[in-house]
Design a protein that fits this description.
The structure holds 2 protein chains of 2 kinds.
Chain A lengths: L10 H6 L3 E3 L2 E4 L3 E4 L2 E2 H5 L5 H10 L5 H13 L8 H11 L4 H11 L9 H17 L4 H7 L18 E2 L2 H12 L6 H17 L5 H11 L4 H7 L5 H12 L14 E3 L10
Antiparallel strand pairs in A: 2-3, 3-4
Chain B lengths: L9 E2 L8 E3 L2 E5 L7 E6 L2 E2 H7 L2 H10 L5 H13 L8 H11 L4 H9 L8 H11 L4 H11 L15 E2 L7 H11 L6 H13 L5 E2 L1 H11 L7 H19 L16 E3 L5
Antiparallel strand pairs in B: 3-4, 4-5, 6-7
Helix pairs in contact in B: 4-5, 4-11, 5-11, 6-10, 7-9, 8-9, 9-10
The chains are: A mainly alpha, B mainly alpha.
Amino acid sequence: MTSRQTATDTRYWDRLRGHIQSGAGGWRVGEAVYSHGYSLLGELVGELSWVELFALYATGRRQPRPLCRWLEAFFLCMSWPDPRIWCNQIGALGGSAGNGPVAATCAGILASDGVMYGPRTLIDATQFLRQALQARRSGTSIDALLEQARPGGKGKPRIVGFARPLASGDARVEALERVRRELALSRGEHLQLAFDVEARLLERYAEGMNVAGYVAGFLSDHGFAPQEIYRVSALCVAAGVLACQRDQEARPSGSFLPLRCDDVHYTGTAPREVPV
Amino acid sequence: MSDQERPREAMRAAQFAEKATTRLWHEVPSRENPYVAETLRCHGYDLLELMARRSLTDVVFLLYRGELPTAGQSRLLERLAIALINPGPRSPASRAAIACGVGRTDPAHILPAGLMTLEHAHEAEPAIRFLRRHIRLRADSVAANLLESGPPAPHQPLWPAAPGFGRNHGSADPWLARAADDMAALPESGDCLRWGCAFVRVLETQGIGWLPHGLAAAVLADLGFPPRSAPGLYQWLRAPGILAHGLEYANKAITALPYVDDAHYDIQTDCD
């Protein structure tokens, strides 16, 4: 402590030293592995699918089986075995560089955690729909919502969950809608609003909804908060990354998209002497 | 809208680059094999020459800033790198590395696992922005205004109103204050660091001080590093200590770490 400070009340940390409080569960050796009040081995193993367990751990609540079937379909939609997709490319590069499936898949998952695609975009997409729904209830038109989303009042609206890089349209929306209908899962007001926004965007700007907008609307209607949607989607790209790692690991190391020195164009400073 | 009405997927007419480009690194191919470099240059300087004539911190500065540092800039960056070389054995990052070590994790994973657990690395970016926004104002006025709008919660390290500053277990961190004051006394120290020191002097009596990523942000800002580079550079600065702690445990028995017994493990049932 410096002379500038007075003694600090550390009782909060003192109480927690050497002590764990867990809301998730824990292992009582010889008794049970408890998980959110259930016995993992006695009640959940053989009863829950992996996705049902994952959804329980991500939200702290048992989620209905049909909803988990839908979540599984969503994870499939996010795991393409195409190494041109950025996160998958990391899996392929990892495999090609001799890294194992765990490291390469972790690296690919980490790469998906950004603002262009992947789980984190679901937070913004969800927040847009929640705020837009409030605004609609207060009488704001969809056109006004779109207008507010045009940066500097120019160009196309920029709304996370609508439009996407590389391609226009998003076939995953139809696939997930088909699964939703087959599972008799309801379409609530968030998802309906997402479709209404899409209809107007298509009409005025030829841009549609992407999978993030769809998922944000659907899961909001089923009681998921933005952070819960982010959390339950944390591993959604994992299978695609792993597929790309496996494919390249089986090939000679360094054979994935090899680059000659001159395949990277140098645009920097000309050669110069190092000053002493 | 029915599925039939939805637009089909179509590739956008985007113009992709034919080649990747870089301004910072030139690999001159060998005559025998175009995939192998025979000369490496960093912003125009031959790497072999840099190896012979300059320090590691000089070359790190060059890599990110495009020019070699002055002697003062180099000294400042080196002081920062030493100040932050180790978050210490109690930090989440080092504890993650230690858990890897004692758990016989693949040694190549110790550092990535530690860095992914490093506390508040992403906050280094807003910390630079905060400093840049405020250095033209009086530090004591800014502190008074922010305190009036609400000090940080007593048990929270971060103070959202002032990224880079906050509490270390309820206190202003005394060691970081000394390290910052030492660096601020160097003739080559800059406005952000000196402003931060003045800001902390006002706030210390409230138990608010520098946070490590804030100190990194201040020095990096003074050295001209852009905000977006700060989280990654902060990870780099902390990496040696994190890895060292993990390796220290890599050959120890699993019993070398405390294990919380059931009497001290509360399971809080929240089943719905």
